[in-house]
Inverse folding.
């Protein structure tokens, strides 16, 4: 199915997220906590000249905050964000891997204090070379382990 | 103790050995040396202060040496060393709330806790300085300071030493802190352990980024004769899935007089203690054995740290 032949109605005002790795559209939807009542669509396994297959998400009436844009990079490092107004793309941006990630990931170290129940603590990871490092216990989370450690 | 310069240590947390530079460590060692040689200068120097020691895990040396240091400085000591006797376990109080309570009652909180990151979290909660006395298998920074103080006392330097670390390098909390502290010096590190108990990836990454030369191997045999320092840690039986694997391996890392028969004349053997049987008793009376002196040095280093933080 060629991308240009998709017959999904255009959104008037909102966001289209392109170049999501195939199969991860639902994860992006979850990580963005898109309201189940929102007018949104995930288009899965679209042919992509650059990546073979990809997913797309279109969300009516929602613009992403810079923090939300950066969180997408955890699971879709090559995603592009299209801001749409009056059915036209008015701004196109690429995701940037954040230097600090709070809340969305769980620490892989089961004995980390950030995994403790009954404690008012949120997980926090710092970007280091080719990995993320837990701010509390120093454990490393490799890029390929990120998806399995999402709190979604 | 009025003449001691407390530098930038006042009210400082001691959470990770990574937070201390070479200059700061050297300064701590200078003050520790003074505490060892002139204890009268430190006696009752902190007589208005209250130290909270909250130990959620058992401890002998660390607890007793902090307590002895605090008492010799004239501090009152409050807290617990048996978590079952506190509200933390008994009434289900959170770690967070326990810290908030002791923050109100004391000038400094010394914590041992089974969770990695516990001291970091506590330091973010507490307005009072926090000292990490063991955070799960993550770190034990004051142990590293006394380890380096002992090495410096024995050799007069730390640079250019060839150091072997043997045993459970993955789950022993003293090892990461020791590596982080030694990374401030020009040393060569040799990690001797079975693959499953080798140093953790984050420690290895840290050393690589600092440009520290290190090797990893499973046998001590070809290494021991070239070492200046042999740092022995306990193989912990509970870390092995198969008990038979533990019994098979534990003998391989046991240090006996035969192990050190061709060692350098001035090599020293350190151990954070407690030992089980990884160093045979016949080593105790040799010139190599410095682990009891090392434990004694804990008193002086902790006296120095408390004085620097609370003076």
């Amino acid at each position: 199915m060629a991308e240009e032949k998709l017959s999904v109605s255009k959104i008037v005002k909102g966001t289209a997220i392109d170049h999501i790795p195939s199969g991860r559209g639902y994860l992006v939807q979850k990580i963005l906590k898109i309201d189940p009542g929102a007018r949104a669509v995930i288009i899965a396994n679209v042919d992509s000249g650059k990546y073979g297959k990809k997913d797309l998400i279109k969300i009516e009436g929602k613009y992403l905050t810079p923090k939300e844009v950066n969180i997408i990079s955890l699971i879709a490092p090559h995603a592009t964000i299209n801001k749409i107004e009056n059915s036209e793309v008015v701004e196109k941006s690429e995701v940037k891997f954040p230097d600090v990630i709070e809340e969305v990931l769980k620490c892989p170290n089961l004995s980390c204090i950030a995994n403790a129940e009954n404690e008012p603590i949120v997980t926090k990871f710092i970007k280091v070379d080719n990995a993320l490092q837990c701010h509390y216990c120093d454990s490393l989370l490799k890029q390929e382990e990120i998806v399995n450690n999402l709190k979604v | 103790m009025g003449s001691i310069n407390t530098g930038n240590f006042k009210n400082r947390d001691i959470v990770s050995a990574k937070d201390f530079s070479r200059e700061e460590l050297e300064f701590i060692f200078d003050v520790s040396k003074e505490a060892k040689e002139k204890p009268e200068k430190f006696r009752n120097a902190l007589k208005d202060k209250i130290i909270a020691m909250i130990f959620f895990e058992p401890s002998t040396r660390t607890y007793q040496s902090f307590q002895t240091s605090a008492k010799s400085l004239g501090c009152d000591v409050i807290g617990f060393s048996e978590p079952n006797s506190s509200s933390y376990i008994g009434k289900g109080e959170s770690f967070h709330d326990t810290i908030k309570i002791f923050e109100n009652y004391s000038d400094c909180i010394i914590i041992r806790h089974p969770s990695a990151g516990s001291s970091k979290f506590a330091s973010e909660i507490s307005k009072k300085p926090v000292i990490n006395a063991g955070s799960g298998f993550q770190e034990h920074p004051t142990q590293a300071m006394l380890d380096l103080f002992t090495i410096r006392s024995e050799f007069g330097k730390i640079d250019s030493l060839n150091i072997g670390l043997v045993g459970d390098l993955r789950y022993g909390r003293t090892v990461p802190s020791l590596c982080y502290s030694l990374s401030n010096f020009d040393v060569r590190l040799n990690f001797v352990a079975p693959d499953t108990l080798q140093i953790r990836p984050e420690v290895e990454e840290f050393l690589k980024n600092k440009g520290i030369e290190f090797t990893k191997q499973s046998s001590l045999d070809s290494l021991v004769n070239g070492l200046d320092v042999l740092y022995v840690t306990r193989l912990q039986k509970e870390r092995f899935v198969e008990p038979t694997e533990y019994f098979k391996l534990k003998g391989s890392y046991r240090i006996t007089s035969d192990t050190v028969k061709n060692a350098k004349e001035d090599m020293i053997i350190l151990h954070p203690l407690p030992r089980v049987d990884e160093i045979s008793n016949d080593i105790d009376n040799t010139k190599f054995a410095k682990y009891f002196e090392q434990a004694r040095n804990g008193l002086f280093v902790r006296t120095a740290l408390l004085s620097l933080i609370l003076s």
Q: What stands out?
A: The longest strand of chain B covers residues 50-55.
